[in-house]
Amino acid sequence: MAKLWKNTDHIPWICDEDEQDFFASIGDYSLRVEQMDTRRWWWRVCHLGDPIPTLLNEHATCRSSAINLAEGVYFGHLAATRAQEQTYIHQLTKNRK
Questions:
Q1: 64 Cα distance to chain centroid
Q2: Which of 11, 36, 56, 75 would bridge 40 by S-S if both were Cys, CB 3.0 to 4.6 A apart?
Q3: Which residues of 63-93 are buried (b: 16+ CB within 10 A; e: fewer)?
Q4: Banded pLDDT at 5 (limits 50, 70, 90)
């Protein structure tokens, strides 16, 4: 049975009963953290179903690090996407004048 689990005030994470698998869904994004063994956690962030490429290796040594890395990639990608949209809108507006 899944339950609501929060690591931060920003993202509502859902976890399984033994707190080894975590999932969050925000708009077009999905974030996932899973415990691989006692000292390894795997994490991934997807946008529209595709993994977001990152220079980080998708592994961490503890749950909180894995969740923080996933949240960092999410917020970074969200900010970059919004900046690209604003640049595009600015160019369209500029070209109409």
A1: 13
A2: 36
A3: beebbbbbbebbeebbeeeeeeeeeeeeeee
A4: low
